[in-house]
Amino acid sequence: MIELKNIHKVFNKGEANEVVALHNLSLTIQKGEFAVVIGSNGSGKTTLLNIISGAELCSAGSVTINHTNVTRYREYHRSKWIARVFQNPLSGTAPNLSILDNFRLAALRTTSKKLTIGINDAFKKQVQEKIAALGMGLENKVEQPMGTLSGGQRQALTLLMSVMDNTDILLLDEPTAALDPKSSNVVMQTADTLIKQYNLTALLITHNLKDANQYGTRLIQMAEGNILRDINSAEKTKLQLQNMFGWFA
Amino acid sequence: MDFYITAIMLGLCLSSMSLGIFISMKIFNIPDITTDGSYTLGAVVTAILLTAHWHAAAIIPVVMACGAVAGSLTALIHTRLKIDALLAGILVMTGLYSINLIVLGRSNVPLINVSTLFSKIHFFSNQGYNDALAALLFIGIILCIVTFILKTDFGIAMRATGDSPSMTRSLGVNTNTMKIIGLAIANSLTALSGYLVAQYQNFTDINMGIGIVITGLGSVLIGDALISWWKIRSILWQLVVVLCGSIIFQMVLAVTLSVGVDPNLLKLVTAIFVLLIVSIPRLKLNLRQ
Ligand SMILES: Nc1ncnc2c1ncn2[C@@H]1O[C@H](COP(=O)(O)OP(=O)(O)OP(=O)(O)O)[C@@H](O)[C@H]1O
Ligand SMILES: [Mg+2]
Question: Has this prediction a pTM greater than 0.80?
Fold first, then answer.
């Protein structure tokens, strides 16, 4: 469960280029809820995700995860609950490390990285089985550097990596923005399946209204650093795609 | 002939530093020039302790610790004060010059009547072979240890830190701490080169580290070119190739000197050689376009 209370985020405070990215925003996302966040460019969506993940600390307000106040926790400290998929496939994976190395690190997200060799045949087999389920034929390439894969393949693998270790919360910032329609579909389907399978609390940012309509149990529209619309599961299922286009007038 | 054997030996002794620079430059993506200072520091500590009749083996942990402190200092300045890594390195290197001079007491200390690492091995009747064996064993052990570290889970986190910091942080790694540990390891390896060279050439000189970072950089660049040329993925082989880069570098310098280039021009030759290594791949690229 994520609880945000009266969040303010100001960039470059006191300078000429001061920006208020989030303004008195409060939001509670229940365990197992899959919230989709839409909103125009600059409305504060990425900032919201960064405040939850700890990549940015808020200027005022409080962040609570599973009843622990994590407002001052850094990103590497919050990672015991949170897994992330970035907009840029390059940010979520290490290109010069092998796929196996990437998965090994992801499997240790919530624990310490020790001076022992953790990649063995059993681990390799476990990773290959997970990757095979994607049906992309990548299971025989696990020794290759991550950078040799396409953006779509890397995003799909990042999703798998996010559930290699105990995960409560999955944050996805436009995971399909750099992908072609076919890869986008694979990534969105995979995300949806994993969120249901592991009962994750998820937050997805997207500019694709079709995806926003099709996926998730809650729809949030942001504008000017705050929440403009918040639509629950029951209303969301009734929502027509055509009506949504009108929101951006 | 002796000339080339000396070059190979020097290359071997300096390869520990090359591994260190490989770690800071290629794995952590940090241009670390603390090297000049930490290399001399290693040699200075070696000279002082050897003349105080310490056993050569007992000096190793002290030398490594000193190098590690120098490296962490640079990394602390870089990560905590958010100062450019290059500048942080220059600051520590400059400071170390005075510290080295104070510790050494004068600008040059000969190591003639002391028992060095190289005087401990009597396997062959030829002392040259014994020296080579000692250096090979020493570097071999370092190679195995560094390879092991990089292959562990901790090592994966190290390698990921330089490769994709955002991902590494999101996977629960404090990348700043990682950088501090990384530069500590890199500079303790560099200090070990100072330890070896001081004993091999039988003296420590306060100026022996000036420009040594270029030598290390050149070795790593040679190694890196070979790594991408042969598409080497295995960590062990990557490190072996960097080690070879260090020897190749010294060989090239030896050849230059043997054809009659004035030794006073050695640093200039070194700089031009490194410039060539860096620019040849780019020139080729430009020609193709
Ligand atoms: N690091 C930063 N420094 C200064 N200003 C920033 C920073 N990050 C974001 N901003 C500003 O905060 C506001 C919100 O940005 P944010 O990235 O959260 O928008 P967004 O909703 O994700 O937009 P998009 O749809 O384009 O990704 C913008 O005005 C942006 O310029
Ligand atoms: Mg954004």
Answer: yes
